[in-house]
Amino acid sequence: MMAIGVAPLAGQTYRAPRGADGKPDLNGIWQAVGEANYDLQAHVARPAMALRPGPHGAVPAAAVLALGAVGAVPPSMGAVEGGQIPYKPEALATKKKNQEDWLNLDPEIKCYLPGVPRATYLPYPFQIVQSAKAMTFVYEYAGAVRNIYLKDPGPALADSWMGQSVGHWEGDTLVVNVTDMNDKTWFDRAGDFHSDKLHVVERYTRTSPDVIAYEATIEDPEVFTRPWKIHMALYRRQDTQILDFKCVEFVEEMLYGPYRKHPLGK
Q1: What pLDDT sits at residue 1?
Q2: Residue 30 dihedral angles phi and psi, to the nearest 5°
Q3: Residue 72's pLDDT is what?
């Protein structure tokens, strides 16, 4: 996940195609390829996200045992600059509790909106729709949509799952300032979390015809001791389109099944 993009040939600098306003054209369908959604930090392979003690080490929790290799966690070199997320001690304890109860607590399992930056590296494509006057990000997962304001509208009326995004250009880089998010989303399946004081600054830079270098600086004074960064490459998806994956209908039984007059058996 640490690769930023495809390097240009020696002596050459890639220049992205331009829109009508002269700004780099980011239109297209893009997708992160890697393991960041499992765990942003570097990690070895393990048998499952949800574990329990076994006779010779941790084994999968009973609820995911039947998934076998499908439920396992692939290894990753990580996407966090410097390797470690700088948690405050009390916040690190909360992260560990989240990880232990991942099956019940991870908002992704319930098809809640993913928030920022997690929406970017979920294992699904998303589309950037850009014109001289407007920009919208359309995510396949949960039908999430994010408008990127090119003129600051002022503070949001309320916190929300996807927050408020205000963008501007710094040279060939789109910089998106994301604020006013609630505290309900996670960064990954490993229980990494934030408060409603989360502030994210994203940077999108095309480094080749089919690669965007993505960087996000994450700041939350209630949870972390300092700001920290993630880096990854976003790759263009060819010959495809964003399809419907409004997954909320697939979790109705999990969320509301126990309230049936005659609940279904497990």
Answers
A1: 43
A2: -130, 160
A3: 96
pLDDT computed for residue 5 by the predictor: 46
Can you read off the two tokens belonging to residue 183? 């505290």
Cis peptide before 117 (omega within 30 of 0): yes
Q: Judging by DSSP bridges, how do beta strands 135-139 and 28-32 pair with one another?
A: unpaired
C-beta atoms surrounding 188 within 10 Å: 23
Residue 160 φ then ψ, to 5°: -150, 170
| Integer angstrom CA distances of residue 186 from 13, 16, 89, 192 | 36, 33, 18, 6
The number of helices, as runs of H, and strands, as runs of E, in the chain is 4, 11
Angle, CA 150 vertex, CA 128 and CA 197 arms, to 5°: 90
Cα-flanking dihedrals φ and ψ of residue 96, to 5°?
-65, -35
Q: Give pLDDT, residue 12.
A: 62
Question: 17-76 pLDDT, tens per residue?
Answer: 999 999 999 999 999 999 999 999 999 999 999 999 999 888 999 999 999 999 999 999
Q: CA 189 to CA 170: how far, in whole Å?
A: 32
Element (H, E) at 233: strand 228-236
- Please give the Cα distance from 2 to 58 (Å, whole number): 28
In the numeric block, which tokens belong to residue 74?
A: 């692939």
Q: Which of 30, 240, 244 is nearest to 123 (CA)?
A: 30
Q: Classify residue 103 by its DSSP letter.
A: H
Low-confidence ranges of the chain (pLDDT < 50): 1-11
